[in-house]
Write a structure and sequence with these properties.
- It comes from Adhaeribacter rhizoryzae.
- Pfam families: Zn_ribbon_TFIIB.
- This is Transcription factor zinc-finger domain-containing protein.
- InterPro entries: TF_Znf (IPR027392).
- This protein is α+β, with helices and mostly antiparallel strands and 88 residues long.
- The chain has a domain of 49 residues.
- 34% of the residues lie in helices and 14% in strands.
- The protein has 3 helices and 3 strands; from the N terminus they run βββααα.
- The protein has a 3-stranded antiparallel beta sheet.
- The chain is elongated and about 40 Å long.
Length: 88
């Protein structure tokens, strides 16, 4: 299958039981029917366990953005989904 954006051949990977098509050129992610629901379900299951929430809170440093003296408006917060969509 070809990328709808840049016409590069899409690659396929399995992330936590969900097959995801991605473009190695523009890094676009393309989901088939039902795959977004699977991702959301896994995310909800992951964060319903307080241990996972606390671990990710520490791992991704959410609290560093709450202080006005350390405000970084252009720095993106990371989350569970960053690991899910990491193809590099």
């Amino acid at each position: 299958m070809k990328c709808p954006v840049c016409n590069e051949t899409l690659m396929m990977t399995d992330k936590q039981g969900v097959e995801i098509d991605y473009c190695p050129n523009c890094r676009g992610v393309w989901l088939d029917r039902g795959e977004l629901e699977k991702i959301l379900e896994r995310s909800g299951t992951h964060y319903s366990d307080k241990k996972n929430y606390d671990k990710d809170y520490k791992r991704y440093g959410y609290d560093q953005y709450n202080s006005s003296s350390q405000h970084h408006p252009h720095k993106k917060k990371k989350s569970f989904l960053d690991d899910f969509f990491d193809f590099g």
